[in-house]
Amino acid sequence: MIQLDDTGDIWTVTIDRPDKANSLTHAMLSELADIAERAGSARALILTGNGTVFSAGADLEAAKAGLAVSDVWERLSGAIARLPGLTIAALNGTLAGGAMGMALACDMRIAVPTAKFFYPVMKLGFLPQPSDPARMSALIGPARTKLILMGGQKITAQDALVFGLVDRIVEPEDLLAEACSLCADTVAAKPEIAAGIKALCQG
Predict the structure, then answer these.
(1) Cα–Cα distance for residue pair 100/41, rounded to 1 Å
(2) Which tens digit of pLDDT belongs to each residue from 34-57?
(3) What is the arrangement of strands in the sheet containing 168-169, beginning at the earlier edge strand?
(4) SS3 state at 111
């Protein structure tokens, strides 16, 4: 249910469970984290999904069994954040719940026009993963972060672009090509230069 193309400088990871809205099990999250932890040799990493939803977050049955509060989410987002290459979330559709963490950990987020963004942890009675509110606040500010996490608001792609939650809106048929295009200069540069610029941008 996780597809990996690691044949070139750009690794593309696809969540492939469209019949379940790409909801994530513990095994899927662990596989994603394993990939991110060994992707240091990749010049760029693109995360995307199959179908019309990027990910609905935790699989319902797995969430009831404790996945919603598992540290595997934090393991995954931390591994993505530590990568020296460029990381892009190519959001083929709606991004919900704990799946938000992996996208927030990426350097850039691009999304199709129909994507929506929501993170209903408070309604469900859970705290978000520890790094997610800080990463979201760094992108869109504390008030808008509270709008999503405490106000329970579902944000459209257009609002996400205005907020700074996504960096570009792209038609579905162009999504992966656009992500690869954004990686082109990083792939062409010396690895130490690309990693150095990324480190400077992060402060």
Answers:
(1) 25
(2) 999 999 999 999 999 999 999 999
(3) 2-5, 10-15, 44-49, 86-91, 108-111, 168-169
(4) strand
Domain boundaries, the chain: 2-202
- The contacts of residue 190 (CB under 8 Å, 6+ apart) are none
Q: In this structure, which topology does domain 2-202 adopt according to CATH? A: 2-enoyl-CoA Hydratase; Chain A, domain 1 (3.90.226)
Beta pairing, strands 53-55 & 2-5: unpaired
Please give the Cα distance from 83 to 74 (Å, whole number): 14
Residue that is written with structure tokens 């010396």 in the block: 190
* Residues 77 and 36 sit within 8 Å (Cβ to Cβ): no
Contact (Cβ atoms closer than 8 angstroms) between residue 119 and residue 97: yes
Cα angle 153, 157, 161; round to 5: 100
Give Cα separations from 137 to 39, 95, 110, 153 (angstroms): 26, 17, 18, 15
Helix or strand holding residue 169 (H, E):
strand 168-169
Residue 64 has a pLDDT of 64
Q: What pLDDT shows up at residue 156?
A: 98
